[in-house]
Specification:
Largest sheet: 4 strands, mixed
Order of helices and strands: HHHHHHHHHHHHHHHHHHHEHEHEHE
Shape: globular
Low-confidence stretches: 180-264, 284-288
Length: 483
């Protein structure tokens, strides 16, 4: 069971909507921040599985958490600032357990990555932490786990957490920031066994492993190296630090290029390769001399490898950048024709935070980056009906004002329902609601030829249908720009 998927299905959508309004930040910025916050905090939970005392504390906190907050996030925020303050107070306790004195570092990195203000990022992390802890607590209760069972479950999430962590944020945090969940050296140790683990412990142990492969002469050299490192000699320290730095650097470039297995194995291969190069040339002298020269050759090899990987990463980045620019240009071109009179009317509209109109205006002002898909967040219908409820139709009217200002833009309206009731009736209802939106747009002067519709019923849920909050998210209307 993937914890991050559970969080995404049951928490993220509603938290983005409500937190963005509470903080006065854009939904896109809050969503981007949460994409980093949840994996980062979970990485620290995984780190606790290697610390018996830390795991027990994590288990006790999760088991005692109030998981009812997961079922009505909108109601929690709707209850006023006092409720949110209580939520954030609980988040401070979670952060203290997981991050200790390092919370400020994570806040700075997430703020820089997402574009949110530092104060908003700090509040958002405190809001998010209790939801993650409550999700873990609910799983503990549902599966009747003890602390050991929790540790095993969290340990099995390591791969999904690494995959979910945005590359840009992970690289800015550094290889060791998130502990064993993301540490390049530990990742090496996990994948290459005891020899790899000794890279972390000391260069002497790595050399010992290499000596086994090069024969008796190598073993004698290693004996001297081990003595030198055991005495905390300057050269030994240099190799330990250099090996760690090398592993981190190569892991970083490997990550950027989609390195996979290379990310974990390359540092050890380079270290052992450097030693083998020196031994093959009849190297002699003290253990420290051998280590120094092997390290020098290793650094040279690492430089060549990193350069090659860096070139590949640059090429991939160039292609991706060109693709993004081309997509933005294709979408932006339909906005190039402007009805100036309608544009003046549009300039006088104040869009509700998180509304489809607000999202589309952010899209326009942001250079048309993204997929051009927006969700009506303030539009509701009478129960079981396609009749738009009261004043909520203003969100559709505001969208009509944008379409009037940009007469070449065409849109596609998609209706969705939850899975309550008969699937065929849900399909019919979703189509009727999409048509109702089209009808209201046409009533505001938008040509019907510019609008297509489709009902999806309950076939494409945005969240889990197991909770009322999830079902509420699934009852939605989305509008996308026709490319």
């Amino acid at each position: 069971m993937n914890l991050l998927d559970m969080v995404k299905d049951q928490v993220s959508g509603s938290l983005i909507s409500n937190a963005s309004k509470f903080l006065g930040e854009s939904e896109s910025g809050v969503g981007k921040a949460l994409d980093g916050i949840f994996p980062a905090l979970m990485g620290k939970m995984i780190d606790k599985t290697d610390d018996g005392g830390g795991l027990d504390k994590l288990f006790d906190m999760a088991k005692g958490s109030d998981d009812s907050i997961l079922d009505d996030i909108g109601g929690l925020f709707g209850g006023g600032a006092g409720n949110v303050a209580k939520l954030m107070n609980g988040g401070s306790g979670v952060l203290n357990l997981l991050l200790g004195n390092n919370t400020g570092g994570l806040i700075d990195k997430v703020a820089g990555f997402s574009g949110l203000k530092g104060s908003a990022t700090s509040s958002l992390i405190k809001m998010a932490a209790p939801f993650l802890m409550s999700m873990v607590g609910r799983h503990i209760k549902n599966k009747a786990l003890d602390a050991v069972g929790l540790g095993k479950w969290l340990g099995g999430q390591r791969g999904s957490v690494k995959s979910a962590m945005p590359g840009g944020l992970l690289s800015s945090l550094g290889a060791g920031f998130l502990g064993k969940g993301f540490d390049a050296i530990t990742g090496l140790a996990d994948n290459v066994g005891d020899a790899g683990k000794k890279v972390v412990g000391g260069a002497a142990d790595v050399v010992t492993g290499a000596a086994g492969a090069v024969g008796d002469a190598g073993k004698k050299v290693v004996g001297g190296a081990a003595d030198a490192v055991g005495a905390v000699g300057d050269a030994g320290k240099k190799v330990v630090g250099g090996a760690a730095d090398l592993a981190g650097d190569v892991a970083d470039v490997g990550k950027k290029a989609g390195g996979g297995l290379l990310k974990w194995l390359l540092p050890l291969v380079l270290i052992l390769g450097g030693l083998g190069w020196w031994m093959s040339r009849g190297g002699s002298g003290t253990g420290i001399d051998v280590i120094d020269k092997a390290a020098e050759k290793t650094a040279e090899m690492a430089g060549d490898a990193a350069g090659a990987v860096g070139d590949a990463a640059g090429a991939v980045g160039d292609v991706a950048g060109d693709a993004v620019d081309a997509a933005a240009g294709a979408l932006g071109s339909v906005f190039s024709t402007i009805d100036e009179a309608a544009k003046k009317t549009l300039d006088g509209i104040t869009f509700a935070a998180g509304s489809a109109g607000s999202q589309m205006m952010d899209f326009i002002k942001g250079g048309f980056k993204g997929d051009g898909n927006f969700r009506f967040n303030n539009l509701t219908f009478d129960t079981g009906s396609a009749a738009i409820s009261g004043e909520t139709g203003a969100e559709v009217d505001n969208l009509a004002a944008i379409l009037a200002a940009y007469p070449n833009v065409k849109v596609h309206v998609t209706g969705h329902t939850d899975n309550t009731g008969d699937a065929a009736k849900n399909m019919t209802l979703s189509q009727a609601r999409a048509n109702a939106v089209k009808g209201r747009l046409m009533g505001k002067g938008i040509a019907g030829t510019r609008i297509t519709t489709k009902g999806m019923g309950d076939s494409d849920p945005a969240a889990s249908n197991d909770t009322e909050e999830g079902r509420k998210q699934n009852r939605r209307i989305e509008v996308s720009i026709v490319k």
